[in-house]
Amino acid sequence: MKTVLITGCSSGYGLATAQRFHAEGWNVIATMRTPRDAVLTPGERLTVLPLDVTDPASIAEAVSSSGPIDVLVNNAGIGAVGAFEATPMSLVRELFETNTFGVMAMTQAVIPQMRERRSGVVVNVTSSVTLAAMPLTAVYTASKMAVEGFTASLALELEFFGGRAKLVEPGYGPSTRFAANGSGRMDGLIPEPYEPFAEPVFAGYHSPGPVTTAEDVAEVVLRAAVDDSGRLRFPAGADAVALSA
């Protein structure tokens, strides 16, 4: 029985991904900053662990407690939308700490065991902002584009030892908690001069059209985890697939 460790499982893509792998018979290590039994109840083949991907001690404890990890899914992430001019550098660093450095730190923590076993897969969840330029997402895009470049290079290193690295690129999912989770960070990020520019942008986010569900992403993460074709990028959701065409 294979084991998958998934970060950011308290809601959205991470929660759906944990449920999808579990339904497929995997041993699932679902991690989140503050485990909540109401979200995922530990049981047969399902372990819930606390994990802060920005804390080295927390990472070490979670990896040590998980045993052999066949697949690492780096899903944990935070978002912010706003004008770059108005974005404090402290917020820039906060996004990179979780979205970029957290991915790198988790990956570095599991590579040794994968190298020794000469097998293992790292699946990094980015975003469709890496597929096409989108307004008011400069910092978020930068944090995800960094992961794209990191993963493409990492794939070549892991391949030498029999491992694999994959990218899953979800489209826009209005049903996830991305906006709610980032609302506090976005206060003041649309100053008055940018309001005429931002208004149609935000209206577009709520316009009819293809969107991505958490289940879409979970299905594609599973597909990427078992793929041995050498393919690197996996868009998830109808809108992401359209952008990647």
Automatic annotation (TrEMBL):
InterPro entries referenced in this protein's UniProt entry, alphabetically: NAD(P)-bd_dom_sf, Sc_DH/Rdtase_CS, SDR_fam, SDR_oxidoreductase
Protein name: Short-chain dehydrogenase/reductase
PROSITE patterns named in the record: ADH_SHORT
This protein's UniProt keywords: Oxidoreductase
Domain of life: Bacteria
Gene3D superfamilies associated with the record: NAD(P)-binding Rossmann-like Domain
Keyword Oxidoreductase attached: yes
